[in-house]
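Notebook entry, cofactor series.
This is the third protein in the set we're modelling with a bound small molecule. For this one the ligand is pyridoxal-5'-phosphate. I'm keeping the input format identical across the series so the outputs can be compared line by line later. Sequence and SMILES below, as received.
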Amino acid sequence: MGGHLSAQELDAQDGLRNFRNEFHLPVASATGADLLGSSGVDEPITYLVGNSLGLLSKRSQQLINEELSVWATRAVEGHFNHPKHREWLSITDKLRPTLAELVGAYENEVACMGTLTANLHLLMNSFYKPSKERYKIICEAKAFPSDQYAIKSQIASHGFNPVEALIEISPRQREHILHEADILAGIEEHGDTTAVVLFPAVQYYTGQWFPMEKITRIAKAKGCIVGFDLAHGIGNVPMKLHDWGVDFAVWCSYKYLNSGPGGIGGLFVHSKWETDYPPKYHGWWGHDPKTRFKMPPDFVGVPGAAGFQQSNPSGLLAAALLGSLQLFAEAGGITALRAKSIRLTGYLESLLVQSKHFVPSERISLNNEERKKTGFTIITPQNSDERGAQLSLLWPSGEGMMQRVFTGMRSRGVLGDERNPDVIRFSPVPLYNSFADCERAARVLEEVLDLAEAPFK
Ligand SMILES: *Cc1c(COP(=O)(O)O)cnc(C)c1O
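Returned structure with ligand:
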């Protein structure tokens, strides 16, 4: 990628480059980077962790400040009477059009609410209806722990045994990413006894973007309910949940959507299920807004995904997300961002594979002893259709290498993130990362590895 062009030239050609200026870049003192000593100023670091916590946009900061000011000057009146017309009563309505676009849904199919794991339980409460004949849940073996806890506790709460009812699709021996054929074969094999197939859009550890449409098609043909966890997918890769016929999905917004720590989450419920899978546990925010404040004793649900809302949402968190989503829209939406993302991740990959410490992917199944002598490999799929904005570098086990490399890079002002047991993730985010960021990360990685003692000789 990029051919002979330098990072500076690639940045100069990038029509989205100015969006970087819309964000606060973390500074050297935050990570104890040595940059501080050389220049005397608190320089921005190279931040490649947008898959974990997206950066604060100046727009979000401004909107939060405005909400604070409305709270200060109008207090409870802000719910109904807001100088910026973001009445807290209905502020999430302002977010739903962009959220719907990001996941490929109709507006009434999405709700901006809650947090990911809680939303997952909420939707499982409606969609996981196990019977003696059909009770299993199919997921991937390396699912994010919170999802595993949620799934297992859902199974147990219905009186089934997770050991038997949870079907986990595993990578092949010594491999890290799942073969599409193995996922589809697992669904074929267990589909008739499976109630729900639940997959992430993008796997948090490997960065693998699963074939969502195919998984949905095969699982639906088997009569299963299909849900997706979009934690690492929303704002990262384009989706068409409605057209694909996905039944439900949940997400958080503090990763690629930059809503801030613990930001407001969301969920998707396909419109075909309005009557068959209504919300099971009600709250006043799922009640018809026309009569909500008449405080009637009986629940009348809002049609669509909004009926799953329980509590009144945080105006501050909604404003934080709104600022970032405005930038998504101004940048041309997920289509424009994805086009840059493919180039950006491809560029970082092209630099990393030139490292003398890189082990080519054909040798990915090398045993640990052999990798120790040579360095890192990249376990994220090479095909851009099978990954988002992330490369996961795998280090030899048991050598403390991953930790040493991570710390070495961090002290030089390049922040990736460490994921136990053996991976460092780099996530170049098209909204605020540059080609120069990628170039610097690859350069600093090489520096750290060249300096490292054995086994890197
Ligand atoms: C980030 C992430 C979560 C986090 O869950 P919260 O409920 O927001 O704390 C859950 N699942 C996956 C797959 C994630 O990547």
